[in-house]
From TrEMBL, chain A:
Family: Belongs to the binding-protein-dependent transport system permease family.
Domain ABC transmembrane type-1: 77-257
Matches recorded under InterPro entries: MetI-like, MetI-like_sf
Pfam families on file: BPD_transp_1
Membrane topology: Multi-pass membrane protein
Name the UniProt record assigns to this protein: ABC transporter permease subunit
SUPFAM superfamilies: MetI-like (SSF161098)
Keywords, comma-separated and alphabetical: Cell membrane, Membrane, Transmembrane, Transmembrane helix, Transport
Residues passing through the membrane, by range: 23-43, 81-104, 116-137, 143-162, 206-226, 238-257
UniProtKB/TrEMBL annotation, chain B:
ABC transporter domain location: 7-235
Stated name of the protein: ATP-binding cassette domain-containing protein
Family annotation (InterPro entries): AAA+_ATPase, ABC_transporter-like_ATP-bd, ABC_transporter-like_CS, ABC_transporter_ATP-bind, P-loop_NTPase
Matching SMART domains: AAA
Keywords: ATP-binding, Nucleotide-binding, Transport
Organism: Paenibacillus glycinis
Classification via Gene3D superfamilies: P-loop containing nucleotide triphosphate hydrolases (3.40.50.300)
A GO MF label: ATP binding
Pfam families hit by this protein: ABC_tran
Length: 273, 260
């Protein structure tokens, strides 16, 4: 009877009165960075800090505007985005694939996981020169370096998420007579989705990190190259523009994944703070 | 199989292997259940009632003896043996109607119609699109019941399904279940530790005693439905179940004391 249960559905609507506070929350989050920038600008203007090492925010903004106007920034950024995207797609895709495989079968765990764990422990910077030797200074070495980084977070998180699926629900799937395929598609994957999406977020971050390493080491284009080139000519503002670009684009990518996660995992009943 | 016997359990023995050796959970249990019967199995904890149910469900196939459904030995879990767990165990990422359909597609018009019928049967109209986190315990358990019924099981096995519910919700759920049974005539085995519940629901009450799990007695219950818990005949039967318990418990205590 519905009278046993009306309360819970009604409480869904009662929570939605926090809308006007959104602006206040943003202001709260922005207060510290804005203050920092103001102090920085003031100190730079008075000559208290070296404008060579710490160009003032206004100088950086100026450099950024001219880089945007000349199309230089966008040209480098586009190349970087393609590299990061391809590397993330390749590495993350394979990581997800092998994570699912190893998660679903104990036999493949025993054969594959030890090797993967070994490769995981080799640092980026250690293999970067080798990658350049093997695959040349072209795009391949960079994309593969990014892929190597992006592989592991997705691999490990997909693997662990599958192993963490509630055994009680497996029992239900047996009682309901799920086929092997349905058990994976309708039980394992949805149950592992929170972990997989966390893996996507971490992989994306690592791909971005790998991009910087790849472009700083050996490159003739990309935001990383723009930075290392500027450093050689002591154009510190351009270095800061590069850092800012990496931060903003990285944050944007992360926000997109977070938004997708929130939509896909709306059924979760977790602590919301 | 003739004479309406649906489930035939003969000389069932079950031993759990632990690192201290074997623990006998069920000893030489014999039980025949006819089609359409409502059986309640009652006994104190450790009497093997949940173990018995898991064996019938095919979730535990490491047993000795013979357990046959319509003459076929039970070797695996499947949709012919519906199972309701103590907790609802719904898929948290699916809405009520999709939980009921589970691996079946609601786009199939036949499934769609059956799901709608079952939602009506378990009285959940208006909650088709709700998610498990929005449901009360009783509602979630009704979804689980509808999910099992959609597969038209030959037998429905219920493992203390209302144990976690408050008294009002529980008595409401008992009504719902009797309704379903009277409409569908699905054979039921209902495990409980609540004597009133056992007497209220069943045609036959199977009383188990613990260590090892053995049938202590089987009582027929011919009281007409709907049953009145306050009636003299209900109380009489309740006392009969209780005395079956007490007899065994007194004997148990006697044995325990003899050990000192």
């Amino acid at each position: 009877m519905s009278d046993l249960s009306g309360g819970k559905a009604a409480s869904r609507n009662a929570v939605r009165n926090g809308e006007p506070r959104k602006a206040a929350i943003i202001a709260l989050g922005a207060a510290l960075p804005v203050l920092l920038l103001a102090v920085w600008q003031a100190l730079g203007d008075r000559g208290a800090i070296s404008t060579m090492l710490f160009p003032t925010p206004l100088t950086i903004a100026d450099a950024m505007l001219s880089l945007i106007r000349s199309g230089e920034l966008w040209g480098h950024l586009r190349i970087s985005l393609v590299r990061a995207g391809l590397g993330f797609g390749l590495g993350g895709g394979l990581g997800l694939l092998f994570g699912l495989l190893v998660g679903l079968s104990r036999k493949s765990e025993k054969t594959l996981d030890p090797s993967f764990q070994m490769i995981r422990m080799v640092p980026h910077l250690a293999v970067a020169p080798l990658f350049v030797l093997w695959f040349g200074i072209g795009e391949e070495s960079k994309i593969l370096l990014i892929a190597k980084g992006a592989f592991f977070p997705l691999y490990i998180n997909a693997f662990l998420a599958i192993r963490g699926v509630d055994n009680k629900l497996f029992e239900v799937s047996r009682v309901l007579g799920f086929s092997r395929f349905k058990r994976v598609a309708r039980l394992v994957l949805p149950a592992a989705l929170p972990g997989i999406l966390l893996g996507v977020r971490l992989s994306l971050g690592v791909a971005w990190l790998g991009l910087v390493v790849a472009e700083l080491i050996a490159s003739t284009s990309g935001v990383g190259y723009m930075m290392s080139d500027a450093r050689q000519f002591a154009q510190t503002p351009v270095v800061f523009v590069g850092i800012l670009t990496f931060a903003v684009v990285g944050l944007a990518a992360d926000s997109i994944v977070r938004l997708v996660s929130r939509k896909a995992l709306h059924w979760q009943d977790g602590f919301k703070g | 199989m003739g004479n309406g016997v649906l489930l035939d359990i003969r000389n069932l023995n079950k031993t759990f292997q632990t690192n201290k050796g074997g623990v006998e959970a069920i000893r030489s249990l014999n039980l025949r259940i006819r089609e359409g019967e409502f059986i309640t199995v009652i006994g104190p904890s450790g009497c093997g009632k949940s173990t018995l149910l898991k064996i019938v469900a095919g979730l535990d196939v490491a047993y000795e003896g013979s357990v046959e459904l319509e003459g076929n030995r039970i070797v695996a879990a499947g949709i012919d043996k519906g199972f309701i767990f103590q907790e609802p165990r719904l898929f948290p990422w699916l809405s009520v109607e999709k939980n009921i359909a589970a691996d079946l597609s609601l786009r199939d018009p036949a499934i769609r119609r059956r799901v709608d019928e079952l939602i009506e049967l378990v009285r959940l109209q208006g909650f088709e699109k709700a998610y498990p986190r929005e449901l009360s315990g009783g509602m979630a358990q009704r979804v689980a019941i509808a999910r099992a019924l959609l597969r038209s099981p030959k037998i429905l096995l219920l493992d203390e399904p209302f144990g976690a519910l408050d008294a009002f919700t529980r008595s409401h759920m008992q009504e719902v279940l009797l309704d379903i049974w009277q409409q569908n005539r699905t054979t039921m085995i209902f495990v409980t530790h609540d004597i009133d519940e056992a007497v209220y629901l069943a045609n036959r009450i199977v009383i188990l005693k613990p260590r090892p799990g053995e049938i202590s007695g089987i009582l027929a219950n011919d009281l007409p439905y709907p049953r009145k818990q306050a009636s003299a005949s209900f109380q009489e039967l309740r006392l009969a179940v209780l005395s079956e318990f007490h007899g065994k418990i007194e004997r148990q205590e006697y044995v325990d004391r003899a050990g000192i």
